[in-house]
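Good morning N.,

You mentioned wanting to compare the apo and holo forms, so I went ahead and generated the holo version with magnesium ion. This is what I fed in:
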Amino acid sequence: MALVIQKFGGSSIADAERLKKASRRAVEEFNAGNQVVVVVSAMGDRTDELVELARRLNPEPAPREMDMLLSVGEQTSIALMAIAIHSMGFKAVSLTGSQAGIRTDGVASKARINEIDATRVFRELEKGQIVIVAGFQGVDSDDNITTLGRGGSDTTAVALAAALKAERCDIFTDVDGIYSADPRLVPEARRIERIDYDEMLELASLGAQVMQSRAAEIAKRFSVPFRVRPGGNNSEGTLVTNTEQLEQVDVRGAALEMNEAKVTIRDVPDIPGAASKIFSAIAKEHVSVDVIVQNISAKGITDLSFTLLQDDLPAARRASEAVIEELGCGELEVEDSIAKVSIVGVGMKNHTGVAESMFSALAENGVNIKMISTSEIKISVVIDADQGQIALRAVHEAFELGSA
Ligand code: ASP
Ligand code: MG
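and this is what came out, ligand included:
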């Protein structure tokens, strides 16, 4: 008998029909002879609606009360799912995060799980119950209900999979799985069958937003393989696992980020502390900077360029202008519309020539590279926003990401 975790996101249980379908999936697993723990989110856009309701009463609601409020969304789902499963003639019990033993720190609205006491869950499973746990919530040491940050039900599911030593963990969502590139931009993009935790994390942070990244971090730390699957059909989705399980390829996926901007500060004095002054002023404005390039210096001065989100441009400009004056730098130049194309793959660690293939694909398509940044498993280039989609398609094709 295997222990299986199934997680259903808000869209997979948005109405009675879909909730019934999800309940049927749980029953099927149970009928196949498995122990089943289901983790659910709030139905549809319930969480957003509750946030909106609170904001209408108070623009800055207290985080503790928000946790009390938002946890209700998931609580509705667990009760309804138990009710639905009962009507199918099966035993099911709903548990809040607290009842399921999910103990967190006391940081309201973005709590972290400290430990899971699985005694109650195991007891219910032994009684032959399908156990339905409210995602996204836990309890702190003072018995306050806490929540794990938006999208936190994924984290609940993966953390439970680790604590219960589940054999399988299926995350049902409204996407077909993880793709080699955004299929809306690259029609040839294909579903990736297996992907490494780190690749998944990179692609998630690159805007291929499929699940809360903390969930993938926990899965990696405790070696919990999980599947991202569509709630609407029987596709196997994508298995997220460790490198040993993977077919060796250099590049697994490609991503495009739009809405970025580039700032260049000319004639920065080449002295210790200049970069530190500039970037601490920017950090004080809560702006996060992405790619940074400093040129080779000549005659004691250098140029410094960095990229950031377009929305952060006014704040970054304000911060930089003050420091420019103080340091005696030259002009500030802004390109307010650039894009970043990245390729990701754990296999590129051990292979040379990946960067070269990427750059020649871009060159053949007339794409000019403005900046380059690399890590062990990722290469990113900053280019003109107009060429974003061409560049994405070019690298996708060059690495044959579309062919099976
Ligand atoms: N209902 C919560 C949210 O919408 C948690 C989740 O869906 O994972 O953020
Ligand atoms: Mg949700």
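The chain has a mean pLDDT of 94.

Happy to go through it together on a call whenever suits you.

Best,
F.
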